[in-house]
Amino acid sequence: MKLMKRMLMMVGLLSLTFLFIFAQQNAKTDENFEKQLINDYNVYALQIPDNLDFAGEPLPLKDPDIYERMDRELLVNTYWQSNGLLMFKRAKKYFPIIEPILAKHDVPDDFKYLAVIESGLTNAVSPAGARGVWQIMPATAREYGLEVNDNVDERYNLEMSTEVACDYLKKSKEKLGSWTLAAAAYNAGMSGISRRLSEQNVTGYYDLLLGEETGRYMFRIVALKEILSNADKYGFNFRDKDLYKNIPTYKVAVDTAVTDFTAFAETYNINYKILKIHNPWLREPFLNNKSRKNYFIEIPQDGYYSTKP
After folding, report:
1. Is 131 helix (H, G, I), strand (E, B) or coil?
2. Which class for 146: exposed (0-12), middle (13-18), buried (19 or more C-beta within 10 A)?
3. Strand, helix or coil at 7?
4. More exposed terminus of the chain, fewer Cβ within 10 Å: N or C?
5. Pair 87, 118: CB distance under 8 Å
6. CA distance 276 to 152
7. Is the pTM value of this prediction over 0.90?
8. DSSP string, 197-236
9. What angle do CA 60, 62, 66 make, to 5 degrees?
10. pLDDT 10s digits, 73-121
11. How far apart are CA 136 and CA 228, in angstroms?
């Protein structure tokens, strides 16, 4: 009987020992796994470059206020990885359209990053009524010669809206004296920036006390410029084939009404959806054109779409 008790005690002791060892091994495994997770994803403080500028106009980064505001925008936009990667993808598609128009008007190339923060390079719609990649308000669009109505809204035409943006920015630069202030005026208006400069008795953007949106505006532009110009430095990894491509098109002149854009698209071996992708400024499935205006409709070249009518 005593022998049996001793054997049962020994079995119990061995079982407890085994369970303890097993628990310790699991704990080590969990600990190693957690360490691996930590090592696989790291968040770093960013080193702000010593010489950041917008359109050749330097940021006064030795000012602690300017340094902190720049640091914030670099951090926010670096670690918002999904959005950042989308900006790389879309930039490959749309910058080749924007860049030559900026150059033609002698507007600094850095202004393409203004379009990035305005709309994310999409045909965005703001609560205030701004539309398109350049987020142009209806009154401004009409003032600069764009057609805006229920049938046609040329703010959605990237080439035409970029031309308008260039005209506005050049006028702002002439009035305010710097490209930085011209960019800020794109957000707050020429008169708004001019009034604040006068009220605060300063001459530059970085000396102004501004509201949240306009106060962050230039730092967001410069942050996107820095990140999109240095993918590897900020941890964005992609291949050229991962980026979006601009589909080659040709223009078809139309100076009459079009009663049915579905039928119109089919004559070019595409469907209505594809026609709208390349001509988002056509707001309805027909074109009134009572004035017999000459419109140019973009048609994609053959071979790029598999979807047919």
Report:
1. strand
2. buried
3. helix
4. N
5. no
6. 12
7. no
8. HHHHT--SGGG----HHHHHHHHHHHHHHHHHH-TGGGT-
9. 60
10. 999 999 999 999 999 999 999 999 999 999 999 999 999 999 999 999 9
11. 24
